[in-house]
Amino acid sequence: MAILNVDDVKISLQKFGLYDYVVFVLMLISCAMIGVYFGFIKKKAKKGGAEADYLVGGRQMRVIPVSLSLIASFISGISLLGTPTEIYVYGVQYMYIVGGVVSMGFIMMYIYLPVFHNLQLTSTYQYLQTRFDKRIRLFGSVLFTFATMAWLPIVIYVPALAFNQVTGVNVHLITPLVCVICIFYTCVGGLKAVVWTDVIQTVLMFGAMLLIIVKGTYDVGGFSVVMDRAVSSGRIEGPDMRFDMTTRHSIYSCVIGGVVYWLKTNAVSQNMIQRYLSLPTLQDAKRALWTFIAGTLILLALCCYSGLLIYAKYHDCDPLTTKLAKAKDQLLPLLVMDTLGDYPGLPGLFVAGVFSAALSSLSTGLNSMSAVVLEDFFKPFSNRPLSEKATAIIMRAVVGIFGSLCVVLVLVVEKLGAVLQLSMSLGSVSNGPLLGIFTIGVLIPWIEGTGAIIGGTIGLVVMSWVCFKAQIAIASGELAFNPKPVDTQGCSYHFIGSEPMSMLAINATVPPVVEPPSDPGFALYHVSYLWYTLMGALITIVIAGIISFLLGPNNPDEMNPKLFAPFVERILDRRRRRKVAHSQPRIELADSAFH
């Protein structure tokens, strides 16, 4: 019997049939129908008018749908495909970030969320104008816009590649179709349509991952086999306790750096805060926060286990070395077709789950963009109040224009190749300075607007340099990764031997990563990517503090206490009461002297 070559195996695994297409198309149709329902059939909520209904669901949404929407919005296709890859290639060290996720929940619950929810904002950048001035609001909005438009095309492109792996359909045929459906239901139905489609998409994500895990574990011989192979290869290991900022993943970078990274992406990001603000009370928002954290941790655990499952399946025949998977983001689709390919409809469910993750991120981004453009670019510069009709046109036009731009940018993303690493770094560039400015706003009343914008600008410049230098170092080989061992001794097909492929940032679970160089010399851009957000935030806060005290700090007694975290508000209130108490005896003494 002739031995198959790797190309024959690839073709044999492409079993995406009629039932799979039916499942995938049904997912798209259900999303479109939800948009039609909330856009044309169900009457708009009266509270706050059409604008509030479109952007924050009339502030009358329910906890469970919003929680599921938060999970779907945060877990993109990059995360769903990239986390298993991370575990397969580098082991479970990344998963200690769960300590940072839980810590983020407490910090957000007591510091950031009460401020935004009590002020009843639509755009988080409205807060920056109220706390500082219009310049800071514009600065934050521009950063958000550019970062979002750099991220969304990649979010769409990654699952399109997975679809191409299992079907052979051209990326540029499926991308416009999926984007048009997403633009339609986001444009027509607003936040309510986004949230309820996210509910369907979250169920699909969990269902797809559970299906792969149950069937895959059965195929390899059970849970104990998966664990034994993971332990023997060093993929399951205790936390790295070294305090070395150039170590890619240590317990310190995962927990300390991780909590700051998650604070920016969840506590002050327009994409996420807009959902918390759609809930009627602060208690509801807090319940949604912890439901989101629980759901995200479960999904991360499923992704982590599926990475170990991929290794258990291919422990003696690494598909990256043999080129059975051309890119690392195709490892999970490969496992799916190998495990579920003989069951009509199940590969379709997986692809629907991956695309659901991408659609939820895209719809969230577009809905948030409509809020930011309306509130931060149109309203502040409009000479007269916008009519309800003009507001509706602007909000829907923004979704349509930016959604179409994402489709075009997918073409650019494909052509740029390695520059994807730089695109993925844009989040790290802007995250730190933005978090620094918001943290100054809610915690440090003495810092004023000029100090904040200078601090933010310097933080942005420094982090741009760090990320740019890190990308050059990765491309030149100055910074390298240390993957876990793989084997090809058990392969049953013929392949041309080659070195393992270098990891593109598009396949990472998070922005591009760096490792300590062989040269003992230290450079700032050798620091682990998990420290980037903290570094940018600290630079912003320190510079802003210095500038403010040189120019003359704010007087906290003259500021609105509602702009600060609850414990800062209490401190300022006690300070005012003490001043009033100290001034009372003098007034009484002056009165007695007069009489």
Determine the N-to-C terminus distance: 118 Å
Which geometry do the CA atoms define?
A: globular
* Mean pLDDT across all amino acids: 80
Number of distinct helices = 21
List SSEs in N-to-C order.
HHHHHHHHHHHHHHHHHHHHH
Helical residue percent band: over 70%
Structural class: mainly alpha
Sheet with the most strands, sense and barrel status: none
Number of strands: 0
Instruction: Show unreliable segments.
Output: 417-423, 498-518
Q: Which band does the percent of strand residues land in?
A: under 5%
Subcellular location: Cell membrane
InterPro entries: Na/Glc_symporter_sf (IPR038377), Na/solute_symporter (IPR001734), Sodium:Solute_Symporter_SSF (IPR051163)
GO molecular function: transmembrane transporter activity
Family: Belongs to the sodium:solute symporter (SSF) (TC 2.A.21) family.
Describe this structure in words.
The chain is mainly α and 595 residues long. It has helices spanning 6-13, 18-41, 49-56, 63-74, 77-90, 98-119, 124-131, 134-167, 171-220, 223-232, 251-267, 270-276, 282-313, 319-322, 331-340, 346-378, 388-416, 420-443, 449-476, 532-551, 566-594. α12 crosses α16 (346-378). It is globular, with a radius of gyration of 26 Å.
